């Protein structure tokens, strides 16, 4: 199973912040599907050492448009990578699926 991570943060350590706009993240999410991803996990807060925390509102502004679009346009699960219950609830309302590993 190919579980892909899509970071929508400007300071992501894994992709250098390349997908910090909704349009860039959506385009990359669609590319992930084309390349065989089985699951896309969308994150909006960097977990890199020393990263500044973001508010739930900022995190939702980053991830919800991406989740809403992808969940409505791809045939694979879209999930959210968050530690905040409020963000998780809103992501599910936008189409994110509850996944277990």
Please specify the SSE layout and strand pairing.
Layout: E1 3-7, H1 22-34, E2 39-43, H2 56-73, E3 78-81, H3 85-93
Helix pairs in contact: 1-2, 2-3
Describe the structure.
With about 100 residues, the chain is an alpha/beta fold. It has a single domain (about 5-95), classed as TIM Barrel (Alpha-Beta Barrel), CATH 3.20.20. About 40% of the residues lie in helices and about 15% in strands. It has helices at about 20-35, 55-75, 85-95, and strands spanning about 5, 40-45, 80. It has a 3-stranded parallel beta sheet. Helix 2 links the parallel strand 2 and strand 3. The radius of gyration is 12 Å and the shape is globular. It starts with a strand and ends in an 8-residue tail after the last helix.
Biggest sheet overview: 3 strands, parallel
**Total E-strand runs:** 3
If you consult CATH, what is the topology? TIM Barrel
How are strands sequenced across the largest beta sheet?
Answer: 1-2-3
**How does CATH name the architecture?**
Alpha-Beta Barrel
**Chain-averaged pLDDT:** 86
Short description:
The chain is an alpha/beta fold and 101 residues long. The chain contains 3 helices and 3 strands.
Write out key terms for the chains shown.
alpha/beta, globular, 40% helix, 3 strands, 101 residues
């Amino acid at each position: 199973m190919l579980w892909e991570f899509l970071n929508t943060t400007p300071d992501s350590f894994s992709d250098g912040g390349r997908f910090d706009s909704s349009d860039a993240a959506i385009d990359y999410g669609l590319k992930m599907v084309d390349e065989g991803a089985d699951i896309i996990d969308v994150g909006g807060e960097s977990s890199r050492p020393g990263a500044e925390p973001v508010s739930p509102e900022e995190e939702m502004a980053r991830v919800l448009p991406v989740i809403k679009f992808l969940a409505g346009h791809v045939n694979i699960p879209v999930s959210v990578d968050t530690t905040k219950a409020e963000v998780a609830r809103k992501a599910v309302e936008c189409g994110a699926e509850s996944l277990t590993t």
